[in-house]
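hey can u check if this looks right to u? its 334 residues, i copy pasted from the old doc so theres a chance i mangled smth
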Amino acid sequence: MARYEQVQTRVRATPRTWLVTGAAGFIGSHLLETLLKLDQRVIGLDNFSTGNRNNLEQVKQAVPEGQWKNLRFVEGDIRALDTCRRACRSVNLVLHQAALGSVPRSIADPIATHDSNIGGFLNMLVAAHGAGVARFVYAGSSATYGDHPALPRVESEIGRPLSPYAVSKYVNELYAGTFARCYGFDSIGLRYFNVFGPRQDPNGAYTAVIPKWVAGMIRNEPVHINGDGKTTRDFCYIDNVVQANLLAATSPDAIGHAMNIGCGEQISLNTVLHLAGELLHATVDVEYREPRPGDVRNSLADISLAQRLLGYKPTVGFREGLARTLDALRKDVA
């Protein structure tokens, strides 16, 4: 039996109380759904600044009524320490996903990014430590690697941040390490690479490339690429990220680490468009633009540390994940 299957069996056998911040968001709602299906008690925290109530409705439709009743939802903001403390009461494990994502958003409004991603993160550390939480797993980012030229990205080698968002995610890791040294409060960071899948918002100024492009293709709208399309990313389907969170929350070996969560596969933006067009049986109208400030040229994860410490093994590759995402987006756009 694979490590993740063993963890799921153990989690189901010993129900505990989990807090998922950003529970109405893309990643948070998938974590919420998985935990409820494993008969866990879950507290969900979200202020709906980027989260979507429809994501919660989709979770409700996906789980039996008895499991849905194991959710207690708190509408609140991680920038308020009292809210964080209230959410952390009687919690065993925290999966901290709440943040303002997007490099362009952070460049447009660095103060909002700082307040949520640094101030809110610190509030959550203080609240979780004060409540005696047993395990704190938080969402990091590959943006932490900044301008370091080496590929694949290895956890011990980072460069200078290229955006306020990258700064905020690096500061999270610094604070996590400081809390371990000063207060004995250990945590685990997961440096997400380009996560994609169902429930990722295809609309808005700061949406990710896959849902934005696919929704445009379904609507027969032109697709815009920043740069020449040869920029590469390590795209990671949402199921792999859910796996990593549950493994991190239960692993005895990964405490104090921040580790890459990707698939170890380098895919160009042009390839994404080609495959999406192939799966949709659509002709893609592409318009190339100037590269965006703060974007890295190439990205690729070395996932050997997560494999060794967590037993992490991506189970859904890019093509399969893209096909699943297209199916979901077809319904959403329709």
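Residues 3-195+237-263+302-315 form a domain with the Rossmann fold fold (CATH 3.40.50.720).
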